[in-house]
Design a protein that fits this description.
Layout lengths: L30 E5 L5 E6 H7 L3 E9 L5 E6 L10 E2 L2 E4 L6 H13 L8 E10 L3 E11 L11 E7 L1 H7 L7 H20 L14
Parallel strand pairs: 3-8
Antiparallel strand pairs: 1-2, 3-6, 4-5, 4-9, 7-8
Length: 212
């Protein structure tokens, strides 16, 4: 399969692209729920404060497939608050205060893809991700099929393409990925491999139960 290459020059090894972006602007003032180690709400704080103080919060990750089953992959814009200019195989983001995981998953998917009318994303699993530099966040992982033409949000997406899984696997070692996205994708692949082993290789694409 031939994929349109990202036109951005490849960063030199060790480039500090994983550093958080500036905690300024409207997004920094967004109110988020702060949760405990069991995902129970214990307070609220602004997004900027959550990142600055490494408070535990909630996020959603949505794996988007097109009509042919290919995965939507994109490069984040350099103005993102965390992991600017990194690649990601998920769309998604933080869950707002009072918002449910399913609501956030659908909202984030439609916003980032620039579409309306997506089916409700299917929940795959949830787990607590921990980042040494940024803290931890409960991560609810979903999948959705998008057969509509996408018009990715320019504030979020600098480049995008739909990749089949073989091509995506080849890119995992040559592109700079978001650490949480890569960890989540590896966990998803491991869960699906385990499902296939349990069903003798005839299992579907479901990822199994909740990983809390």
């Amino acid at each position: 399969m031939t994929v349109a290459e990202d036109p951005r020059p490849r960063p030199e090894s060790g480039a500090p692209e994983a550093a958080a972006g500036a905690l300024t602007g409207r997004d920094a003032d967004e109110i988020l729920d702060v949760v405990d180690e069991r995902d129970r709400v214990v307070g609220q704080a602004t997004r900027g404060e959550v990142y600055a103080r490494k408070l535990r919060h909630r996020s959603v990750f949505v794996l988007v497939r097109d009509a042919e089953g290919r995965v939507f992959v994109h490069r984040r814009t350099p103005t993102k608050m965390i992991f600017p200019s990194r690649y990601d195989m998920f769309v998604g983001g933080v869950v707002g205060t009072g918002e449910s995981y399913p609501q956030a998953a659908l909202r984030e998917a439609e916003e980032e893809l620039g579409v309306t009318g997506l089916p409700r994303p299917t929940e795959l699993f949830t787990y607590l991700y921990d980042d040494p530099g940024l803290g931890s966040w409960w991560s609810a992982v979903y999948e959705v099929r998008c057969t509509l033409p996408v018009h990715p949000q320019v504030e979020e997406v600098a480049w995008h393409a739909f990749l089949d899984e073989e091509e995506l696997e080849r890119r995992l070692t040559t592109w700079e990925w978001t650490p949480d996205g890569l960890a989540t994708y590896r966990r998803l692949c491991a869960l699906r491999a385990s499902d296939r082993e349990k069903t003798g290789g005839t299992g579907g694409t479901g990822a199994g139960g909740d990983a809390r």
